[in-house]
Amino acid sequence: MQPRAVIVANPAAGGGRARHLAKHSVDRLNALGVDTTLHLPESLHDLAHVLKELGEGEMVPVIACGGDGTVHQVLQTAASHNMPLGIIPAGTGNDIARSLGIPPKAKEIDSVLSKIAGLLHGNKSTRVDANIISHDTGSTWSLGVISAGFDSAVNERANHMTRGQGTVRYVLALLAELVPFNLHHFEVCIDGEPRSGSALLIAVGNGGSYGGGMRICPNASMTDGLLDITWVDSAPRRTVLRLFPHIYSGRHVHHDLVHTYRAPEISFLTPDSMIYADGEPVGTTPVRINVQPRSVTILWETPV
Q1: pLDDT digits over 150-202, tens only?
Q2: How far is CA 22 from the centre of its chain?
Q3: Where are the alpha helices (DSSP H) in 94-192?
Q4: Which phi and psi (to 5°) does residue 188 adopt?
């Protein structure tokens, strides 16, 4: 029996690149023997409607074509209805794909599609961890990095910028956010152990990177049943600027200002900070984050 799949694409992702890649992917997967249909919702309202219909219909593997934001939106339906989730990286950051070992560059798209088709024909997939974020308006699934403090402010600014893409946009937003440079007080409980104090940021990683390859939680694994937590103490602007380049290699975790923890659960409260997950705003604190081991089916090989 011919396998089936549905592609849901954000046509605006990657500066419009996702629209082209999605159409190419449908043709390619159909040529590889996968009966593939395409949805190109033109707004968040349309996307929500498409995902609602998919969740209420026959369970078919759903493939997100776009960036981390698109994956995040599709994940909510895939995780809630136990639908296999595929990813075609077509955004500016593609950090979730990168954490899963999916090549994030468009030139490798045919290789990605061939592998997805092979897995569908072989009825193969892998189970990975995901997070549930409990907040005042409900709960949200996440696959990548959850952040609060300085980097969520940077994310907020980057989402409203039109200059640059991926890492370039993030760096520009970071430099702009250094002007007001607000620090935050955190009340945190890590697996039952309380901690409080002023901090630059807290990042909670299931995946290891954000901002287009910045390895904020460099040792995070999507298959170990634990959250990797990076706490960066308060620091002056000049220290932040010196520390920042080391995030790309993950060497920042060796700095005296950086503390790392591993736990299956964390909760925290901090005033005046949005919480971002997979680059998307999910609300304000207090929040509780719990890892859900092997809770999401991914159309890819087992990640490291």
Answers
A1: 877 777 777 776 666 667 777 787 777 776 777 789 999 999 999 999 898 89
A2: 20
A3: 95-100, 109-121, 150-159, 166-177
A4: -125, 145
Largest CA distance in the chain: 62
- Cross-strand bridge partners of residue 232: 201, 258
Q: From the CB of residue 11, how many other CB atoms can be counted at a distance below 10 Å?
A: 18
Q: How far is CA 83 from the centre of its chain?
A: 18
In this model, does residue 124 exceed pLDDT 90? yes
Residue 185 host element (H or E): strand 184-190
Work out the percent of the chain whose per-residue pLDDT is above 70. 96
Residue 31 DSSP SS3 = helix
Report the SS3 class of residue 63: strand
- Residue 148, φ and ψ in degrees, nearest 5: -145, 150
Would you state the pLDDT for residue 166?
A: 64
User: For residue range 133-155, what is the model confidence (pLDDT) as tens digits?
Assistant: 999 889 999 999 999 988 777 77
